[in-house]
Amino acid sequence: MFVQHIFLKNFRCHKHASWPLQQGVNLLIGPNGSGKTSFLEAVFIAVYGHSFRQSKTPDLVHFNEEEFQIDLQWLRYGPLHLQVKGNKKNIIRTLQGKKITIKKDFLRSFPIVFDSTVTSRFIDGTPNDRRKWLDALLFLCKPHLKHVYQNYLRAMMQRQRALRYNHHRDMLLIWESQMVEMGKVLSLEKIQLIEKINEKLADEMLCLNANVQFELAVDQNNLNEDWLNQLKNNRDSDKKLGRTQFGPHADKLSILFYGKDIRSIASRGQQKLVTIAIRLAECALRDYYQKSLPLLMLDDGLESLDSDYQYLLFQRLNLYLGQVLLTTPSVRDIGDDLRIQSYTIGESVSAVDGNVKRSSIMERAA
Amino acid sequence: MLSYEGVPAPLAHLIEQLSGLPGIGPKSAMRLGLNLLAKEPTQVQQLASALAELHQSMGFCEVCGCFSEHNHCLICNDHRRDHRVICVVEQPVDVLMLERSKTFSGVYHVLHGRLSPMDGVGESQLTFAALAMRLAQKDVAELILATSATVDGEATAHYISQRFHAVPGVNISRIARGVPEGGELEYVDEYTLARALSQRTRWQGSGTNVL
Ligand SMILES: [Zn+2]
């Protein structure tokens, strides 16, 4: 499944714009402030129903306009038309003309993986952010674990409340055993997922640069046999802090580069490659569990990469069997041997022939 | 909140009372009030006396805690039932639901809630002491834990089994959970499916399979 065409109307800085796409790698080239990222944002909104930027819906609408519209033309078995219409208050999404109501199934039918420098770089995020990323990936791969996690959190909150009101230790033990019972399931699944990610990462690093070795590591404190005892021992300190110190809700996920925190020793270029390798591993796992390769969107995907690294990255992306959308302010020469399509914003993107294609495709979809 | 401007005080009073009922908003309360006003006075009198009687004549069984008109409920008074098997439930309404299945011939014990420190419910708010007394005074062979399949219901079941597992002669069991009868797997959520799979039972022919 891939996107054939993106049309924007009154969306952010675009009055009318379109981007025709091919099945493999697509570059969108344009200076900063030209609205490249808005194309990726449009796809994101179409799939998630909200933006990845911390901005309110009114900002999405073009200055002085009332309503914006996003049209995505996908090709799966046949053409699929995904449309977003939004005004200053709300967003309505339709698929083949039918309003979308169930969000959960939708995320699985239109898998996307998105990496952006707009919010914050993956590597610069807090361990908290990375845990949330890992949890989200876990729940996408194994949906029933989300319920296990909610139950774990409930048991944890009940224990904290029981601590605060000095409930009997027998009662505390009840909630603690519930936490351990569900938490163990979660921790084991997380460790397994990380092992799988690390396997994929090892493959990716071979593709990108044979000299780099790194892995994701999770705090395994809550996996040891004595977890229940640890909870008992921490009762006083957990009560004082008002929160439970250890468990899957507080895992720390680190990115190690030769065994050390990646930011302390890797160059910006290496960090960028590693980030993209993590996204590719994420894609591979989504494919493994959901049987569908995600659309990979890399915002400012060549940031800090010198020409050698750019070449490595293009070679790797060229092998990806799903679709890739990558934005960048500039690019070195792309080798002739690679099937990579590039568009320059302000020229090909909003060109007249783009709008001609638009009407013919829109008619077919209607 | 609906404005009662122009509505005579007795009617406004009734509407206010009605809109306090679950599932009834101010608009339906207004409709119900007007409907009652349009009815024959004798009919409304019957409704009023049913309401007045409810709390006077209804109470809870002294033994099991279920709804009852007298000190003991019909189930506890029924000698054909097996008083050696006690099914522990959270609410009186659970008894009514289980009775509808017409398969259980034992008696009940209603906890009147489930453990939840967040809602201020600890062991002393529930009827564990009464259950302990029943186990001490009567010959009980089995406690069936039928608390809800929520974290809190599960914790409550854990608590009961921990507190009473040492009582001699008493077996403790937990009701099964999983795929609903006549339910297509397609419509069962992933969590229930995963749980039903991990807690599967051995097949012994005809469906009466106990592990
Ligand atoms: Zn009774």
Explain the overall architecture.
The complex is a heterodimer of chains A (366) and B (211). Chain A has 366 residues and is an alpha/beta fold. Helices cover 45% and strands 20% of the residues of chain A. In chain A, strands 2-1-4-5-6-7 form a six-stranded antiparallel beta sheet, with helices on both faces. In chain A, a hairpin with a 2-residue loop joins strand 6 (91-95) and strand 7 (98-99). In chain A, helix 5 (169-208) packs across helix 6. Chain B is α/β, with parallel strands linked by helices. Chain B has eight helices and six strands. In chain B, the strands form two sheets. In chain B, strands 4-3-5-6 form a four-stranded parallel beta sheet. The structure holds zinc ion. Residues 61, 63-64, 66, 72-73, 75-76 of chain B line the site of zinc ion (ZN).
Task: State the main characteristics.
heterodimer; A: 366 residues; alpha/beta; Rossmann fold; Glutathione S-transferase Yfyf (Class Pi), Chain A, domain 2; six-stranded antiparallel β-sheet; five-stranded parallel β-sheet; 11 helices; globular; disordered C terminus; B: 211 residues; Helicase, Ruva Protein, domain 3; Dna Topoisomerase Vi A Subunit, Chain: A, domain 2; four-stranded parallel β-sheet; two-stranded antiparallel sheet; 6 strands; binds zinc ion
Topology summary:
The complex is a heterodimer of chains A (366) and B (211).
Chain A: E1 2-11, E2 14-20, E3 25-29, H1 36-48, E4 68-75, E5 79-86, E6 91-95, E7 98-99, H2 103-109, E8 112-115, H3 127-141, H4 144-164, H5 169-208, E9 214-218, H6 227-233, H7 235-241, E10 253-257, E11 260-261, H8 262-265, H9 268-290, E12 295-298, H10 307-319, E13 324-328, E14 340-344, H11 352-365
Parallel strand pairs in A: 3-13, 3-14, 8-12, 12-13
Antiparallel strand pairs in A: 1-2, 1-4, 4-5, 5-6, 6-7, 9-10, 10-11
Chain B: H1 9-18, H2 26-38, H3 41-57, E1 59-60, E2 67-68, H4 74-77, E3 82-89, H5 92-100, E4 106-110, H6 128-137, E5 142-145, H7 151-164, E6 171-174, H8 190-198
Parallel strand pairs in B: 3-4, 3-5, 5-6
Antiparallel strand pairs in B: 1-2
Helix pairs in contact in B: 1-2
The structure holds zinc ion.
